[in-house]
Design brief:
- By secondary structure, the chain is mainly alpha-helical.
- The protein contains 26 helices and no strands.
- The two termini are 43 Å apart.
């Protein structure tokens, strides 16, 4: 306040005048587009600069929502929609946690019902998100391989200057250290509108609907698919560069996917098969199978979660991001079993990713650098595996996928056995959960782990009796037993009500 107003005593006059001037220019249709654009950019810079400091309160007193909307809807300034909606999201985040009722922008976003406005925001967001995806692809071409491309790569590798060239130790860290580009900030308004606005969620979902046959095709990827594609790149490269900025964007992408998984209208839109092409990141090994239409975009959303699980297991573990990812998977799986939707999906990749996470936590606990929450992460991951096993018949599309799930759990028996010791080690001896263990009453997580271990021991005995010596023999033995007697599993701990 001393810098801008010369002192606290004069701050009210200066900042009130500033917000009034901004409002007047942005809402003035007779002002030139270039002037309104400059004022818009100045306001974004100012709001970002003051962050959560007290001058931001003047933007809550003087509601700029109508003038920002006028900037978006005006033919002269509609090209600045991306910046206008970014300013709106920044203002909605001022003291969001402790002054939500005092922030008019949160209520304005919730109550906005202008579908034309929302479609304009979707259009601008799609353009920005596409630019981020293309920036990743320009660094490394990860398009699905073709015969011609594979042959060209083979011939190129035979060149003397490349055949003997040393490869860098960590290609991803060097190539992507400056990514994502600035346009990735579009995730902030997307998150805010998806979280708060029912109208925006409806318009967002409607972009997946087939276009009117009488209209010419636009060949523009719908925003939900672009968002999933962008998330796949962010989540694949998030921690490879050790950049707090990249991690922050990955966290925002994961929370946006979680918001999607909490909305029935969005899940119902994404469950429908699409013929649109959807590029997922294939720049890190091991690669997931490509998205091949017609296919449900929910498969691609789950692929984003797998990419996070696989490529971000480091000593400095982003526990909160992993928790968000687990919760997204749980909600998607809950929706699928509730609606009896059986996705044709490479489920084994998801089960392996979950086992990999549990095994990593059990083996690397002492060397992890975290801000806490590992115990909760282990618990929620175990509950997710337990849920998949318990509801496998309602969730998985074929008996073969049920057999694969059971066999994957059985072959990972050692990883699950380590979890009991891990939970005991992580438990606070003064916590209520620990007191329950000491008194002999099992917690929900203890019961879930008991269900899993009981299943493992049941099939381990059968595999020993059958003299199994290979993975194929093991899978056939599991399949034969389940087809004969059905899958006998423990107590269903998950009820019938939707998760909170």
């Amino acid at each position: 306040m001393d810098v801008f107003a010369g002192g606290v005593s004069d701050s009210d006059r200066v900042f009130s005048g500033l917000t009034s001037a901004i409002d007047e220019i942005l809402s003035n249709s007779s002002a030139s587009a270039s002037l309104r654009h400059e004022v818009l950019q100045m306001t974004i810079i100012f709001v970002c600069g003051i962050s959560q400091l007290s001058p931001g309160a003047y933007f809550l007193r003087h509601d700029l929502f109508p003038s920002i909307v006028a900037t978006i809807t005006s033919p002269d300034t509609g090209q600045f929609t991306f910046e206008a909606v970014l300013l709106l999201a920044l203002l909605a985040n001022f003291h969001k946690s402790d002054a939500a009722k005092m922030n008019p922008y949160i209520g304005r976003i919730q109550q906005a019902d202008d579908e034309a406005l929302m479609r304009k925001i979707c259009w601008a967001s799609n353009y920005a998100a596409s630019a981020v995806v293309k920036a990743y692809q320009s660094i490394m071409d990860d398009s699905p391989p073709t015969l011609t491309a594979a042959f060209g790569t083979f011939l190129s590798s035979l060149r003397p200057d490349r055949a003997l060239a040393a490869k860098p130790a960590d290609t991803s860290r060097e190539l992507f250290k400056n990514h994502p580009i600035e346009a990735c900030v579009v995730l902030l308004p997307l998150f805010e509108f998806l979280y708060a606005s029912p109208t925006f969620r409806k318009v967002f979902a409607d972009t997946l609907s087939p276009e009117d046959e009488q209209k010419p095709p636009t060949h523009i990827t719908p925003l939900p698919l672009t968002l999933i594609s962008l998330s796949s790149y962010l989540l694949s490269h998030a921690s490879s560069s050790s950049s707090p900025r990249a991690i922050a964007y990955a966290n925002l992408a994961l929370n946006t996917l979680l918001v999607i998984s909490e909305s029935d209208i969005l899940l119902n839109a994404l469950r429908q098969e699409t013929h649109e092409h959807l590029r997922l990141c294939r720049q890190r090994e091991p690669q997931l199978p490509p998205f091949e239409p017609p296919q449900s975009p929910l498969c691609a959303l789950l692929d984003c979660c797998i990419l996070w699980f696989r490529h971000n297991l480091h000593k400095k573990l982003e526990v909160q991001c992993y928790l968000t990812c687990i919760r997204t998977c749980y909600r998607v799986l809950w929706f699928l079993q509730r609606e009896r939707v059986r996705l044709n999906y490479h489920w084994q990749e998801l089960w392996r990713a979950l086992v990999l996470l549990l095994d990593f936590l059990a083996n690397k606990l002492d060397s992890l650098t975290t801000s806490g929450g590992v115990e909760q992460l282990v618990q929620e991951t175990l509950l997710l595996v337990d849920f998949a096993l318990c509801r496998s018949e309602q969730l998985l599309p074929t008996p073969a996928t049920v057999h694969e799930l059971v066999y994957e759990v059985v072959r990972s028996a050692e990883a699950f056995r380590k979890q009991r010791a891990l939970l005991d080690k992580l438990a606070n001896p003064h916590s209520d959960a620990a007191q329950k263990r000491l008194s002999g009453s099992q917690s929900r997580v203890d019961q879930a782990l008991g269900n899993i271990i009981a299943l493992v021991e049941q099939f381990e005995a059968k595999l020993r009796d059958a003299g199994v010596r290979s993975a194929n023999q093991g899978l056939r033995t599991v399949a034969k037993d389940i087809e004969k007697d059905g899958l006998s599993y423990g107590t269903d701990l998950h009820g019938t009500e939707d998760p909170p």
